[in-house]
Amino acid sequence: MITKLIRINPENINPEDLKEAAEIIKSGGLAAMPTETVYGLGGNALDAEAAGKIYAAKGRPSDNPLIIHVCSYEQIFEYTRDVPEYAKKLIKAFMPGPFTIILKKADIIPDTVTAGLDSVAVRFPSHPVAQELIRLSGVPIAAPSANLSGKPSPTTAEHVIDDMMDKIDCIIDGGSCEVGVESTIVDATGESPEILRPGGVTLEMLREVCSDTEVDRNVLSLTTPNEKPKCPGTKYKHYAPDAEVTVVEGSRDSVRTKIKELIAANRGKIIGVLTMYESAYDDAVIISTSSTNKGYARDLFGALREFDKLGCELVFAEFCENDGVGLAVKNRLYKSAGGRVLHTD
Ligand code: AMP
Ligand code: MG
Q: Do the beta carbons of residue 188 and residue 208 sit within 8 Å?
């Protein structure tokens, strides 16, 4: 398959340029699109066959359901049922934005999309290109992250090209993604909201609207194989580069000391260090992220991909700050490390 590349300036969208991608979606094909979180691999969410193509292109296990993307409040209620009052408050507060809500599904959503669940995950992205593509397609768009299953999510069109060239019909390049980690997923099928995956909408923000919001315990643990997770995706290896990642967590100074020891203990290997504070390390490839948790979230996946391109065998990632988007960073780091986490204090 030849993949068509379409470049769009998000600040000045000419709908004509997106029409071809919308036609692809309508006719059952796949188009990768920029969103404010990460790039999504989109297909018609009402078409079971298109959903099947998404799983195939990503190599995604079919028991890991997809998020459907809509471009209006009306659509949220069209594809769901029995929406609780607290969920309506969350929808009003955080949509459009980097936020996904799980609700009971309407019959029109095919089982392939929800992996047979009675619930559906719905997102209303704020990115103008994603909104316009959904509007022009006239259908909700099922879109997981546009990476090969298990790899770090793509935050630029180049990352999508690396993983999806010749596997999908088109890639829309709308620049790099602002948030950098996937949406916050909240389960709203129970009595009160529960965070299944942390993201750009933080626990603190959610508690301002619903004070009884809780965090699912799988967010910071790796599920044991026999346990059935609430968020099916959490049981798979995720966000992992080829390099073996170890998270080194604690206060700034103790993290730095520990990483220096680890570098010394692994001489002869090509070592990468992901640093938030521009710490200096000898004998390692250093990638610095911005020094805030927001910046760390935005830069994380691109950095993990870069370590692979540079041939790193081991990566040590500094982690120091838990608050706000830090929870999302920590969740992605833990999963990319497959649970290899060292606590230094
Ligand atoms: P991705 O599309 O790769 O960003 O991942 C989507 C995430 O949403 C996966 O972790 C899924 O397990 C989760 N998800 C989608 N639909 C549901 C649902 N109905 N119930 C629980 N989790 C869901
Ligand atoms: Mg994903």
A: no
